[in-house]
User: Fold Flavin-containing monooxygenase 1 from Fregetta grallaria.
Amino acid sequence: TGMRVAVVGAGISGLTATKCCLEEGLEPTCFEQSRDIGGLWRYTEYIEAGRPSLYPSVISNTSKEMSAFSDFPYPEDFPVFLPNAQLLEYLRRYAEHFGLREHIKFGTTIVSVRKRPDFATTGQWDVVTEADGKQMSHIFDAVMVCSGNFSEPSLPLHCFPGIERFQGQYFHSRQYKHPDVFQGKRVLVVGMGNSGVDIAVEASRVATKVTVSTSRGAWVLSRMFDNGYPWDMVFNTRLMSLIRNSLPGPLSWGLINYRANQWFKHENYGLQPEKRYFLVPVLNDDLPSYILTGRITIKPGVKEFKDNSVVFHNYPEEEPIDIVVFCTGYNVSFPFLEEAVVKVENKHASLYKYVFPTHLQRPTLAVLGLIKPLGAIMPVTEMQARWVTRVFKGRRANMSSPMYQNAVQTGHILFGLSFDEVLKTDCLVYTDKLASFIGAKPSVLGLLCRDPRLALTVFFGPCTPYQYRLGGPGRWEGARQAILTQWDRTLKPTRTRVPTGSSSSCPSLLTVVGFLLLLAALVFGF
Assistant:
């Protein structure tokens, strides 16, 4: 028999992990505690009631071409940014297409994952699961933890003096279900992440007043960039990544700052971030106009709560409040793992490349999807899964022991589990690194000789996931075609009325500009 792998969770990471196991000839069993696939994106009770819940933002923040699995493009008629019902439909089609359902056990909770007594030689795990009140014990050769990082809300009430005497209602954004709760109320949203801003915008349609409290500020980007193109297809290109990563920190900060302030001057809206923080931008199309029309007010951090009001730092008068939403993020927790497997010390876990716990004698347990890239999570977790399954099989996958063992000392692997400090690496650089481990990283120079049109699209165009299927293990015949038609699928759902005699100018213009840049680069010995 093949190698048996336990996959924990059937969300985005769990599905792609199961698929990669099958691709490598391993035998996956995926355990999902709910009754269906989709993880975070499934809000059954609200979808059935005809009102999809908001968190984690009903509409995805990354465009469909950038957030597809690398060998399974979205249907061209799907909108560019997907409502969660359609994202679920895509995941269902993916599961169907690759025959994943028969490997998933629904309604099954993982109780514990423990090393077997002979772990040092076999690398095996004892896994206890529970379904319908009955516990079962299994032996697995390897484990992929895909339970995500949105499991345990972080609500540090001790940071908010006076909250115990506050007489209104307060809750964590995880508990938020529907804006009805804000009807006619004065609302305070604490925290300025994506969920905080989304909730503030939704609340302001029914509340009498909405205030957002942020100590750090944030850059706010729209889903649309210049000329209405999706932000991530413009922002996440190999050219842009090269520029961003060649610049020293302050210059890189300045570049993002300039970019964000082109849409609206953040300082005038009370949003300009503090210099010392390198923040991941928040995506929201409505916030600036809601501030401009007085529906939302931005205030500094909370100093203390009173009975029916709140006081902000460096702000003289107190503000009356009826209801508080804490958008203070999540703690990463793996209740089924022994503390010693993923050592979490002051909110840091030591994970090699954010995936393998560094102190296990054998790399047979991997944690997937823990990072928060600025961009889509799908292609990143899929690449993690492709790498991990090859490590499990013992193929050339760069876990040569000295490098892996030294990783502990290099400090590369300390990963902030508090999520206010986000993984700093560019997700493109990170994905490339993993791709190079398995030999799937596209070589722009190599392509330039064989297929110049493709090479230019790969370098100057959006870094879509299909690039990682052009070569190496898991090579996909359709990758080249998918890359060359990515703009067609992006424009199809919105170009629904085309004036006579017009043609698409975007990609051709990009090619011309690209060619000129390439020439300039050659001339100046870039």
